[in-house]
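name: query_chain
kind: protein
chains: 1
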Amino acid sequence: MKRLLLLLSLILSACAFAPGAPTSMPLPPTATSTPAPTSTLTPTSTITPSPTPKPLVPNFEHIVVIVFENTEFEEAIESDAMPTFKRFASDYTLLTQFYAIRHPSLPNYLAMIGGDTFGIDRNCEDCFIDAPILPDLIEQSGRTWKTYQEDMPRPCFFGTFGAYAQNHNPFNYFDSIRLDAARCERTIRPFTDLSADLAAGALPNFVFITPNICNIGHDCWIGISDEWLGAQMQTLMDYFSAHSQSFLIVLTWDEGDSNASCCGLPESAGGRIATVLISPQVQNGFEDDTPYTLYSLLKTIAEAWGLRYLGHAADENTALIVKPWK
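structure:
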């Protein structure tokens, strides 16, 4: 019996390991932990610098101011006697609401470079002023300047002579120039020097041009002023075409015929005058109707070159010329 049981046991064991025999239930899979994702370094974002703000006024290499006399806006712009002036006004930028400070001439010239009339209300020749002026700031900035006075008999001449009128030359009135003989000789020059400086390629950064009392329109018909202007503009434009495209030429007047006023000036001021801006940096065929004064011109020159505002150029009522620039 024992042998029979042992034999059965051996048979059953052999069947368990035979091919095709059912296997035991598989164990459940062991849980595998999912590795934590590795952090990926995100590149630091590049900060794009803000563009440099456009300046309110271009930083011109040269600024040239040419002044005429005693003509109201309408006469300068509407008269057939000034085709050259009108052409530049049409081709470049015309300031249509531009006002002189007062009458007579001299206070307006003083205002253009000093920012004030300094209490002067007449065309005097011995009313000297101790105050800072635009040329002082120009020289401090490392720039150069000259005024070219037509028919002035010699450099740094004082007084009126022939067709040269001292009251159309504001630079002689300020002590910082008048009392410095070398500076006066170097910067207050007869108009004939202009052609020599142009030929030498040596035009200063700031130029102030005063025609004689006929060409300026004081003693002669404005048609003569226009002919004179045509000749000078041709020479200047030729120079800039060859030497620089960063320039501004300002054509303006010392005063008009009326007492028109604006911008915080006295109720009775110097009249409305035509002012034209000529430059590759101005809008073409543009009219700016912002109310401006001769103080605005001083303020705008100062802004272009990073100079401080003198006198009434700093007034809130004195608008900076900003609309014409491209």
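note: The two ends are 122 Å apart (CA to CA).
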